[in-house]
Amino acid sequence: MDKIKYIKHNDYKAVSINTLYDVAKGHNGLEAALDQMIVEIEKVVDDGANIIILSDRGVSPEKAPIPMLLACSHAHHGLKKLKKRSLFGIIIESAEPREPHHFSLLFGYGASAINPYMVNEIITHQVENDIIQGISVEKAIDNFNKAIAKGIVKVMNKIGISTLHSYRGAQIFEALGLNEKFIETYFCKTATRIEGIGLYEIEKEINKRFHKAYSQENLAGMPLEIGGDYRWRRDGEKHMLNPASIAKLQQAVRQNKFETYGVYSKLINEQSEKLMTLRGMFEFSSFDPIPLEEVEPWTEIVKRFKTGAMSLGSISAEAHENLAIAMNRIGAKSNSGEGGEDPKRFQPDMDGNWKNSAIKQVASGRFGVSSHYLSSAKEIQIKMAQGAKPGEGGQLPGPKVNPYIASVRNSTPYVGLISPPPHHDIYSIEDLAQLIYDLKNANREARVNVQLVSEVGVGTIAAGVAKAKADVILISGFDGGTGASPLTSLKHAGLPWELGIAEAQQTLVMNDLRSRIVLECDGQMKTGRDVAIACLLGAEEFGFSTAPLVASGCIMMRACHLNTCPVGIATQDPELRKNFKGKPEHVINFMYFVAQELREIMASLGFRSINEMVGQSQKLNMNKAINHYKAQGIDLSKILYKPDVPDYVDTHNTKKQDHGLEKVLDFKIVSKAHTAIYRKDPQHLEFDIKNTNRSVGAILSNEISKIHGANGLPEDTLSIHFKGTAGQSFGAFATTGLFLKVIGNCNDYFGKGLSGGKLVAQVPKEATFKADENIIIGNVALYGAVTGEAYINGVAGERFCVRNSGATAVVEGIGDHGCEYMTGGTALVIGEFGRNFAAGMSGGIAYLYSDDGTFDDKKFNLEMVELEDLTDKDFEKVQELLNNHIDYTNSSRAKSILKDWKENSRKFIKVMPTDYKRALEILAKEAEEAKID
After folding, report:
1. pLDDT grade, residue 92 (50/70/90)?
2. Alpha-carbon dihedral of residues 689, 690, 694, 699, nearest 10 degrees?
3. Which listed residue, of 20, 142, 312, 571, carries a Cα 20 to 30 Å from 470's Cα?
4. DSSP summary character for residue 272
5. 111: left (phi > 0), else alpha (psi -120 to 50), else beta?
6. 3-state class of 705 per DSSP?
7. pTM of the predicted protein model
8. CATH superfamily of 2-175+185-190
9. Long-range own/partner contacts, residues 736-745 (CB < 8 A, 24 or more apart)
10. What is residue 687's predicted lDDT score, i.e. its pLDDT?
11. Burial of 50 (0-12, 13-18, 19+ CB in 10 A)
12. Among 3.40.190.10, 2.40.50.140, 3.40.50.720, 3.20.20.70, what is the CATH number of 243-640?
């Protein structure tokens, strides 16, 4: 830092500006210091300074520090208004930043570099006093810097920003609890919807901390606050789920005592009123009591309840199945999560327990999503985002991926799994509309649910999703999720569901779209009061995740990612799983209690049914009894706004979406393929195809899956040749026994979710162009393919084989990002390939061929893979695939390679994921040991 401060260079001049204010002058002193800071920066910039260091060093009994984010943003916007911001960079020298979010905010509001000197001093002190052992001070600081950098990159990645240069000054944040005047002065154009505190209250907070620090200075050490933001600590930060509330809930559900639940509910609801949630600031009003007996029964209400998307793998089979059995018994719905599901659960067991998750989640990664899986769903949920980790893909550490979990997810044991963030396959509303259409073809009886995150503008997104023909829209709040969420996301990503559900309801009603959509809400719902408020703001279905797990025995250790859960919930360890003591009755009792509390509230407000209650926000007011100084400026009117619309505009769901499936080509195929579908007799059919024929094969596969299950038909039982141009998602979820061949070309999403079928795209015989030099299929082919084969007689677009987990594919060239996030299967590319090959590839094998036998290292993403020479076994595999390719497509490219095999065999390279290779070695060793035994 000193090198920069005292730099002597013709092109650079650095000046330090202190960010302190005269504490005795209070609010006026803080405001004056901020204004003076702009004057000083402008003066030194006019004098030629181009590096401005904002420093909070020099705190004294007279001088308190200005919050560094406030100083940074004001400097950034203040000089922008003076049209001088481009003349200098801002370096932050501060004791404040310590978490990734702090650094992300500073960069987001204009900082170019940050020196967290206090953190560095603490690390130095800990190394010198052996609190940190085994590494030097320099290494310890370097480790901290790397961790912070990874956190910042993760934040940028979620937003879809590639470089810090693009992220700097982007201010992609929403302020919660800051008033508009303050925001416009110091954080120009940042969204702030509920108003809140301003500079006066901020100075009051600084002053309080400042005086506490200096009043303790002469004592034997200042007692630091214990913290507890991330885990409950006695006398630390307040948590709604704490030992007292957890104990009362578990006692209530085990003893089936509504009175004890009442104690738990009071604990939660009263804490909520202590400024822990937005809903805690509401109170019910306009009471119009009716007898409780007139309110619809709890048995009807619980049908609107759901458990959250917790995947098998993140939680144990026992915990996962316990939720499913409970929800099926009461006609509610449990959610599979994005981890796939064991097909054995799709039918009731010998005891009559049905372990099937009614909601099957698709997510972006599509772990284990096959035609059979989709055919067993009552609702299919597209995880566009998730509340606790907005914009991130799910992640499962290697130790949790045991052979059983790997089999369910169609992946390799002991290899960690990452599903891509949503922007890897859903770039637009059009892409989402296509996916909804695909899934509706894959199971016409199931509702399609799109999960969105509470954020500014979610209402506009929800309107687009409604027009894209979703049946259900879920608005997720930020404070859901398990202890496996990254800590930065757990605390600092996303927004309360109260904001999102209100905005979605208002926008859908104003655009007369609400009648077509079921609106759902989740995110730390714990009591009937929570459900009542969600309903009054616009929700008609409700999701619970953490609370049902607590009812099942969870004690909130927040070590879900470590595989060490002591109560057998968030673990795959066989010994720890024996500790699971939850029963379906516990979850059922919880749902009953919530419904009963909700019924009592409905009776007091005068509502006989949920449908009557949806969106009646006039029954809520801001609680006037809250007198904390920080709450005085809060304005909840934007949340409580009820659009003034004509009587014919519905404010809840009253009709079904029209998915336009009547003219789907598959119905013609099914009508002519009875012999193959029902009797398994080989059959060959031919059809013309055009680009308006989308998702061809999905309905056909659904019919086969319903009759024959995961096994489908014998290989190549039903052979269908198409001539022309196939529309999007040709062969989507094509199941075993189907052979689908297009003589012509195909659009995007060819072979999406391929489930055992065989797909061929072949250039017509009369074509005069070279197949290996022309594109024959579009982008994102074989996305999430589970198993099956594909032979492509030409070049594919970008993102070929993304998240492929078991299919085998041969193609004569691809665009950028090939085999991204692949976890299994084989890809053979016998032509050109684009940049960023194998990014995030954790499994499967790719073979690449080049005419001159050389490969540009820069085209590969080598973070998770190695480049190797082929073994004899590999050469046999490649020859077999090339011969198949010739048989199915008559490829001249494959013929020319095999014609001079001795020479051309040297021109291949093998792309092998590092973890996959290690896992295969472990499995081979285990198999060898099993033989010896």
Report:
1. very high
2. -20
3. 312
4. I
5. beta
6. helix
7. 0.92
8. Aldolase class I (3.20.20.70)
9. 736/711, 736/712, 736/787, 736/788, 737/676, 737/680, 737/704, 737/712, 737/713, 738/697, 738/700, 738/701, 738/704, 738/712, 738/713, 740/696, 740/697, 741/888, 742/689, 744/689, 745/775, 745/776, 745/777, 745/794
10. 97
11. middle
12. 3.20.20.70
pLDDT number for residue 817: 94
Buried b / exposed e along 480-518 (16+ C-beta atoms within 10 A): bbbbbbbebbbbbbbbbbbbbbbbbbbbbbebebbbbbb
> Residues 652-666, buried b or exposed e (16+ Cβ, 10 A)?
bbeeebebeeeebbb
pLDDT in tens, 428-455: 888 899 999 999 999 999 999 999 988 8
pLDDT tens string 227-283: 777 777 777 777 788 888 999 999 999 999 999 999 999 999 887 666 788 898 899
CATH fold group of domain 684-928: Pectate Lyase C-like (2.160.20)
Residues in the chain: 933
Rg (CA), the chain: 30
pLDDT digits (tens, 9 = 90+) for 280-308: 889 999 899 999 999 999 999 999 999 98
Average pLDDT over residues 562-574: 89
Which residue from 282, 381, 250 is spatially nearest to 639, judged by alpha carbons? 282
DSSP 290-359: --GGGSPPHHHHGGGEEEEE--BTTB-HHHHHHHHHHHHHTT-EEE--TT---GGGGS--TTS-----SE
Flag whether pLDDT at 757 surpasses 80: yes
pLDDT digits (tens, 9 = 90+) for 395-407: 777 788 888 888 8
- Which 8-state DSSP code applies to residue 773? G
Which residue has tokens 């007898």?
A: 291
Q: How many CA within 13 A on the CB side of residue 290?
A: 12
Residues of each domain in the chain carrying CATH 3.20.20.70: 2-175+185-190, 243-640
Q: Which residues contact 380 (CB under 8 A, 6 or more apart)?
A: 359, 360, 361, 362, 374, 439, 442, 443, 446, 447, 448, 449
Tokens of residue 848, six digits: 């690449």
Cα 468 to Cα 657: distance, rounded to the nearest angstrom = 10
Q: Where in the chain is the domain with CATH 2.160.20.60?
A: 684-928
Separation of alpha carbons 556 and 69, rounded Å: 33
For residue 212, what pLDDT band results from cuts at 50, 70 and 90?
Answer: confident
Per-residue confidence (pLDDT) for residue 921, from 0 to 100: 86
Rounded Cα distance between 601 and 80, Å, is: 52
